[in-house]
């Protein structure tokens, strides 16, 4: 647009110059006249501000962010959850072999006694003395709540765990339960069910208690067969394995009754304190010609110092 205006202005100026010359005026150099006219024309124009629109900045095309894929939630009980590499869970396996102080033993109020459990390490770990014996339930019987394992115990070895306990001053029956504990605080007991090992006692005022206070706390009969299988030799021997426990000094007379009426001789024993009596003298022999069935049984019957019958224990006799 500006160039067009300048061009038109120059054309008019040139024509005017020609007219002046034609009219006898002062001779003007056409080129000078054109330059002068252009300068005046430009000077007369208002300043023109040219605003350039900057080119838009080009950003590289980007792929939109994708939402992360959520994984499957891990259950705390899931077997695929990562295990603690320092866990001693596999070391928490034990079995009870035997113990002292029979259950139901009678003590005087405030009497001190030592209870020992013989516990076998059935794990593949070595138990060191950082393992503990912890009170689990019942009555603590004057003991502490936590004890150190008394010795290092390798797999398959048996450790005696002895606690010095004190009976309460109030008469009654008391039970004190205990468990073991790994260094990472996993509590465990004995056997498949991780049962607590315990002691159960009776507290009585023995100055006023008659002799009948001492009693048989348990009587068991286990029948074994010899041979265990087969029918040789000619006679199959069934043995009555008797275990009788008392809670104090006691004289006992008992018999083994049989299903066939052959009750045999009576047996006598005396315990000077609470304890366990065992006997395997009573046997029942059956020949191959005997009737074969599962109706046979044997039974413990206490004769003295009182009369008491225990449940019949059945067994089978088959010899094909």
Textual characterization of the structure:
The chain starts with a helix and ends with a strand. Residues 41-45 and 47-83 have low confidence and may be disordered. The longest helix has 21 residues, at 2-22. It has helices at 2-22, 30-44, and strands at residues 94-99, 105-107, 112-121, 132-138, 146-148, 158-166, 172-181, 187-188, 197-203, 216-226, 235-246, 250-258, 266-271, 275-279, 283-287, 293-304, 308-309, 313-317. It is mainly β and 320 residues long. The strands form 4 sheets. Strands 2, 4, 5, 7, 8 and 9 form a 6-stranded mixed beta sheet that branches. Strands 12, 13, 16, 17 and 18 form a 5-stranded antiparallel beta sheet that branches. Strand 16 and strand 17 form a beta hairpin.
Range of strand content: 35-45%
Q: Helix share of residues?
A: 10-25%
- Give the helices and strands as they follow along the chain: HHEEEEEEEEEEEEEEEEEE
Tell me the overall shape. flat
Question: CATH superfamily membership of the largest domain, which one?
Answer: Immunoglobulins
Query: How many beta-strand elements?
Result: 18
Biggest pleated sheet: 6 strands, mixed
CATH architecture classification of the largest domain: Sandwich
Return the structural class: mainly beta
Mean pLDDT: 80
CATH class of the largest domain equals: Mainly Beta
The CATH topology of the largest domain turns out to be Immunoglobulin-like
> Radius of gyration over alpha carbons?
55 Å
Q: End-to-end span in angstroms?
A: 131 Å
SS field, number of helical segments: 2
Q: What would the keywords be for this entry?
A:
320 residues; mainly beta; 3 domains; 2 helices; 18 strands
